[in-house]
Specification:
Number of helices: 10
Strand order of the largest sheet: 18-17-16-19-20
Distance between the termini: 17 Å
Largest sheet: 5 strands, antiparallel
Strand content: 15-25%
Number of strands: 20
Radius of gyration: 30 Å
């Protein structure tokens, strides 16, 4: 379905939008960014993202030998620079498309995969950019306090788009209690000493919030990130008040004891690269990930590595994972949550982390994006339409010259054998030790001479093309 072209109009400006004409600008994201505020890639306009349309710059990739990577992230990081000049399968380029969930729409088909539309406003003009992604990197939360993009996640899965992390695992992260339930399974297997998970209670609604927990307590309402929906309570009166709030939100909630902490721990694993960070609030906020904080990279130890490795086995395997924990003033550690590919990158090593992510994506694309023969386009409805509307220009696959050469060689061989056979019987043309034409051990009549087969095949293809054109002419009008 790549042959479909979108048209746009605004005032006197009309025309067709092509891939090289426009790379969409990305509007500032309202929610939290997966990159820390100190990200060295954070700029007003990331290079290569907000160039506008009708750019004179030619694409830096080979159109005929490239794979399209869709990165879902905000404009603070230009992911194209991490893949510039990179090759897969020896000489295939990486075409990077980047957008936020809010700018994406799609349609997925059982026979032709997933087609993505990126819709943005440029100087008051609505522009749509369409393409078929070969791979997906998700750096935004699929679900947060104000947004839920699971409908797009379902479309990518429906279209069979491979991803980092796998789409199956990302779907599992749509509810934090579901993730925490799997952390409980890990703790039961390893023990509390090896995997010190914080104690937690789950309430599907406000009706069961009757038993007063030990105070102070932290209540988390619904599914949210970056400290949203999280409240610290000091008495049962406060707990009754928050139960009334939960009643009007129609959300589930969890409670866990408030830990008087020295600092937060962030242990991340990207592929086989491990890092650990210590984060301590210096603004007085009990949420270390809110307000000003002091960040320091600390040494990885075997204990942290076990946490990351065990969590990376969840949901069929996580290529990227981050374990969040608290170091209490009582000297104990408490694991509080786990994040996937949308995890926050911290510290002065963010550029290095992004390069590791790019290497991870390239390795996965080598596995899941292997080129398919050109003629496979005709195996689906969309491919048949492309085949009919574009005529024979897409019919010559990379193996076609070799096929013609082989046919010519076989024709010459048949002519030579016929010349050495006075009776004109192909069966008598095989000399001593010569294999049967049909293959080892095959008996029976010899196959029809190849030139005749070629003529019949050509006639069949012409008939097929005529029938297809008639069919689509009846549907769409004369083409």
């Amino acid at each position: 379905m790549n042959f479909l072209k979108r048209r746009f109009s605004s005032g006197d400006l009309q025309g067709e939008l092509r891939d090289e004409d426009f790379i969409p600008p990305v509007a500032p994201r309202k929610g939290p960014s997966p990159s820390a505020p100190s990200s060295p890639s954070k700029t007003t306009s990331a290079p290569g993202i907000g160039r506008g349309f009708f750019s004179a710059n030619k694409p830096t990739y080979n159109r005929d030998r490239c794979k399209t990577l869709l990165v879902i992230d905000d404009c603070h990081t230009d992911w194209s620079k991490y893949f510039r000049g990179k090759k897969i399968f020896g000489d295939w380029d990486i075409r990077v498309e980047q957008a936020e969930f809010a700018e994406i729409n799609l349609a997925a088909y059982t026979d032709s995969g997933c087609m993505v539309d990126i819709q943005v406003n440029r100087n008051g003009t609505k522009v749509v950019r369409s393409f078929k992604p070969d791979f997906l990197l998700v750096r935004q939360h699929v679900r947060d306090a104000h947004e839920d993009w699971r409908n797009l996640l379902l479309g990518f899965q429906y279209g069979g788009v491979p991803s980092v992390n796998a789409l199956h695992s990302q779907y599992q992260f749509l509810d934090k209690p579901w993730v925490f339930a799997h952390l409980i399974m890990i703790q039961k297997r390893l023990g509390k000493e090896m995997f010190p998970l914080i104690e937690q209670a789950y309430y599907p609604n406000h009706k069961e919030m009757l038993i007063t927990p030990k105070f102070p307590v932290v209540v988390k309402i619904g599914h949210a990130h970056s400290g949203l929906g999280k409240v610290r309570l000091g008495s049962h009166y406060d707990f009754q008040d928050i139960a009334g709030v939960v009643a009007v939100t129609s959300c589930y909630s969890t409670t866990e004891p408030y830990i008087d902490s020295k600092y937060d721990l962030h242990i991340q694993k990207i592929g086989n690269k491990y890092k650990a960070f210590m984060r301590k609030s210096i603004s007085g906020n009990w949420k270390a990930n809110t307000g000003s904080a002091m960040l320091e990279q600390i040494a990885m130890n075997e204990r942290f590595k076990i946490w990351a490795d065990e969590c990376a086995e969840m949901f069929g395997g996580l290529d990227m994972v981050a374990v969040e924990a608290i170091q209490g003033k009582d000297g104990k550690e408490y694991i509080i949550e786990v994040n996937g590919s949308s995890m926050t990158l911290l510290g002065e090593t963010q550029e290095e982390d992004r390069r590791h992510i790019a290497e991870l994506v390239l390795g996965k694309m080598q596995i899941y994006c292997r080129p398919t023969p050109t003629m496979s386009k005709t195996s689906s409805t969309g491919g048949l339409m492309h085949y009919a509307m574009n005529g024979s220009q897409d019919r010559m696959g990379p193996n076609q010259p070799m096929s013609q050469q082989q046919q010519q060689m076989q024709q010459n061989q048949m002519s030579q054998m016929a010349g050495n056979n006075p009776q004109g019987n192909p069966a008598n043309a095989r000399g001593p030790g010569m294999m049967p034409i049909g293959g080892q051990g095959q008996t029976g009549p010899s196959p029809m001479p190849l030139p005749q087969v070629g003529r019949n095949q050509s006639m069949d293809e012409e008939d097929t093309m005529k029938n297809l054109r008639k069919t689509f002419a009846g549907i769409f009008g004369d083409m």
